[in-house]
């Protein structure tokens, strides 16, 4: 059964109906094929773009959908319930547009945002490095100021959409002043000197590549620096607050899909003369799964409403990311248990849900980092 949602406008209900229709027609029929073959789903993102689903939280004047985050995240959840890898890529695309939309000059936004939000391109976010994951202030990739721009040298890691994205929001060191020496750049894919490593062989999210990027004296014009020199980390962390909400929504979509599969199976499978859903022990497992999904959804919607209202939401974003992704890991694991031996096979999707759920506890800041953010907010 579709999730019964409380949305702010009639338009939002129409958008969710559109999303479900597109996801059922474009994503659901292809997910098994591409996840098993570990192949990029060519044509999927243009189809999502044509439906207006790649630019929902951004202003209409630049080609966006002008939707509140409360609605955008529920669209992501619907996508995540059909195909988590694609939903993550859509979330990362939104994250990669955040810096320019929020910190760019009017000239920069007018020049690049319409194409970035037009539905025919997709972006990537390039912050982490091999030695600098959670510790973003330890970045070593360097941008040296030269006539007309910067020369970029170094490597970045763990880039979702790496090698497939049309543009990269890059964070690189412009000064040896620790966390205050990092700047933000918008880098086109065809930049000379930019290359990508072999896609990582991952536990899940097989259809979307995750790669390293290598900058070998790559020139980036000065006009492509977003914000002031040294403003990179505040930009990055501000973007991550919104990105964490995207991952929370995708995680809830995964958990909801796992709950739906487990419930459907439990209604059909019989043991000891009755449906297994009617055995109290299993019924309670399903009840706990449902409670976890509903609670996780409530956390990301609360954070989104705060963001939409212009109120601080960093702590709430960390709570949502922590609660939703831990719930996704628990619910998908329980779904495998409900299906028993069948759940451990690829004949049923719950084993994929479980594998995909794990990474949600790691990227956009590990859940240990989310606990650190929450603890620091409590300490003042």
TrEMBL record:
Co-factor requirement: FAD
Location of the Acyl-CoA dehydrogenase/oxidase N-terminal domain: 9-119
Pfam family, one: Acyl-CoA_dh_M
Record bears the keyword Oxidoreductase: yes
Chain ranges of the Acyl-CoA oxidase/dehydrogenase middle domain: 124-217
Residues covered by the Acyl-CoA dehydrogenase/oxidase C-terminal domain: 230-378
UniProt keyword terms in alphabetical order: FAD, Flavoprotein, Oxidoreductase
Family (UniProt): Belongs to the acyl-CoA dehydrogenase family.
This protein's name: Acyl-CoA dehydrogenase family protein
Native source species: Rhodococcus chondri
């Amino acid at each position: 059964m579709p999730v019964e949602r409380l949305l702010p406008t009639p338009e939002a209900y129409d958008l969710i109906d559109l999303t479900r229709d597109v996801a059922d027609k474009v994503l659901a029929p292809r997910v098994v094929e591409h996840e098993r073959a570990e192949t990029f789903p060519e044509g999927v993102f243009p189809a999502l773009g044509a439906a207006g689903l790649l630019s929902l939280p951004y202003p209409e004047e630049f080609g966006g959908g002008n939707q509140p985050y409360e609605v955008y995240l529920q669209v992501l959840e619907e996508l995540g319930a059909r195909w988590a890898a694609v939903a993550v890529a859509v979330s990362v695309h939104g994250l990669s547009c955040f810096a320019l939309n929020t910190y760019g000059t009017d000239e920069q936004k007018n020049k690049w945002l319409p194409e970035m939000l037009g539905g025919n391109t997709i972006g990537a976010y390039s912050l982490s490095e091999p030695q600098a994951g959670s510790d973003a202030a330890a970045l070593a990739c360097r941008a040296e100021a030269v006539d007309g721009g910067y020369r970029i040298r170094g490597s970045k890691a763990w880039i979702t959409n790496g090698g497939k994205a049309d543009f990269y929001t890059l964070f690189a060191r412009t000064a040896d002043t620790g966390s205050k020496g990092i700047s933000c750049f918008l880098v086109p894919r065809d930049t000379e000197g930019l290359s990508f490593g072999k896609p990582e062989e991952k536990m899940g999210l097989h259809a979307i590549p995750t790669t390293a990027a290598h900058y070998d004296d790559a020139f980036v014009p000065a006009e492509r620096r977003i914000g002031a020199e040294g403003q990179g980390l505040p930009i990055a962390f501000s973007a991550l607050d919104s990105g964490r909400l995207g991952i929370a929504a995708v995680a809830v979509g995964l958990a909801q899909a796992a709950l739906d599969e487990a419930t459907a199976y439990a209604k059909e499978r019989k043991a000891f003369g009755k449906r297994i859903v009617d055995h109290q022990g299993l019924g309670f497992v399903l009840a706990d799964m449902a409670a976890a999904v509903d609670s996780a959804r409530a956390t990301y919607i609360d954070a989104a409403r705060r963001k939409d209202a212009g109120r601080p939401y960093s702590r709430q974003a960390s709570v949502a990311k922590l609660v939703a992704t831990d719930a996704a890991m628990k619910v998908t694991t329980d779904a495998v248990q409900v299906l028993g031996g069948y759940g451990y096979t690829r004949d049923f999707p719950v084993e994929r849900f479980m594998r995909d759920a794990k990474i949600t506890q790691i990227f956009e800041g590990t859940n240990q980092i989310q606990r650190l953010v929450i603890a620091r907010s409590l300490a003042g």
